[in-house]
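User: Just a sanity check before I run the rest of the batch. Below are the structure tokens for the first item. I only need the designed sequence back.
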């Protein structure tokens, strides 16, 4: 298979050459070629902090590029679909052809009505995307590809998929429809009080506990050395017997994810025999505080690049960024790369370059209005995120 060669956005962002030796006529011609980029973010209201972090990231990328012929036009959509539509029309009147944003999927609702503009949405949605929009977030499709490769590598064959009953149904459906080798799909109650009971039933905890008790009673009646030796080992256990899965994917986040994994620990499921996975967690360090989270695996972007981005952001703005705002940094880099590579002209078709691109997020290619990221697999171990694949 022909090896894919990725074009490097990072190279353009960090190593753009501005030659001071170019002649005056060249500079005059260059100055006529201006790249106008619209920015559609919630800069006021409930999601203002998120919007400002994304805008700062765009300005950070702009600073790294060091090209005065790029002009951004920020518009406040207040995190509202109608305001997004109104702001998008204003950007169209300015002659803008490419827009970074919006962040939230619901704000895409009317943007399909805006002709001659391409929106680089920072959402990770994979359904109902307008034809004039590219979903640039870390979507479920990219995560499935990474998970499948790793599951094949470690040769697990009986995967249990777990999802809450009332959320992430869309993502769960996509995973079910994928070609992951799923052994079973289970939807659990979102109440923390009920999760443990459901996991106990799922893992047949009571049956395995009774099996242990019965075996101990039998061994207690024996005087054989081997039986006494086995008895000593079993007295250290809580259950006896295996479960019918060797890997678990939990489609959840935050406290509920922690509750599910803790319930597996209480149900005496050995991490030596069962490998646990979840979806992209954006390196949530609150996972470090839970014993049940140890060895939890998840797909994610390049952690080293994320840390570089965070250090640069903190040095510039004196505050921590929203981690997801790295998407906006790469989005501006992507647009600039396409424009610069096409004699300072932006064409939507360039986004679908079959060779793909490379940004701080890692390698990616855009297909069918989706950014397909080449993600890595990390695991939580001793208060660190360790790259395993």
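Assistant: Here's the designed sequence for the first item:
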């Amino acid at each position: 298979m022909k090896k894919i060669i990725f074009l490097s956005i990072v190279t353009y962002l960090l190593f753009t050459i501005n030659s001071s030796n170019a002649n005056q006529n060249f500079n005059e011609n260059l100055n006529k070629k201006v790249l106008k980029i619209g920015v559609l973010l919630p800069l006021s209201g409930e999601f203002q902090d998120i919007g400002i972090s994304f805008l700062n990231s765009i300005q950070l990328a702009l600073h790294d590029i060091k090209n005065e012929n790029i002009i951004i036009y920020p518009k406040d959509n207040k995190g509202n679909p109608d305001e997004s539509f109104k702001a998008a029309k204003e950007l169209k009147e300015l002659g803008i052809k490419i827009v970074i944003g919006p962040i939230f999927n619901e704000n895409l609702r009317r943007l399909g009505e805006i002709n001659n503009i391409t929106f680089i949405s920072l959402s990770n949605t994979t359904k109902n995307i307008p034809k004039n929009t590219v979903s640039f977030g870390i979507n479920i499709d990219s995560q499935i590809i990474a998970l499948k490769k790793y599951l094949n590598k470690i040769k697990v064959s009986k995967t249990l998929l777990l999802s809450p009953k009332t959320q992430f149904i869309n993502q769960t459906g996509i995973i079910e429809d994928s070609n992951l080798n799923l052994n079973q799909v289970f939807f659990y109650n979102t109440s923390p009080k009920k999760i443990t009971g459901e996991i106990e039933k799922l893992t047949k905890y009571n049956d395995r506990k009774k099996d242990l008790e019965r075996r101990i009673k039998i061994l207690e009646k024996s005087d054989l050395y081997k039986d006494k030796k086995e008895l000593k080992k079993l007295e250290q256990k809580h259950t006896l017997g295996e479960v019918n899965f060797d890997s678990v994917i939990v489609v959840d986040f935050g406290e509920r994810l922690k509750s599910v994994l803790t319930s597996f620990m209480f149900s005496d499921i050995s991490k030596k025999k069962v490998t646990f996975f979840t979806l992209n967690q954006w390196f949530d360090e609150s996972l470090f505080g839970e014993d049940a989270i140890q060895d939890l695996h998840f797909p994610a972007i390049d952690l080293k690049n994320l840390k570089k981005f965070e250090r640069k952001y903190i040095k510039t703005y004196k505050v921590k960024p929203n981690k997801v705002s790295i998407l906006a940094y790469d989005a501006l880099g992507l647009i600039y790369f396409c424009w610069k590579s096409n004699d300072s002209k932006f064409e939507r078709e360039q986004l679908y370059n079959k060779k793909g691109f490379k940004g701080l997020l890692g390698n990616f290619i855009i297909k069918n209005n989706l950014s397909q990221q080449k993600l890595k697999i990390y695991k939580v171990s001793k208060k660190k995120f360790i790259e395993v694949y």
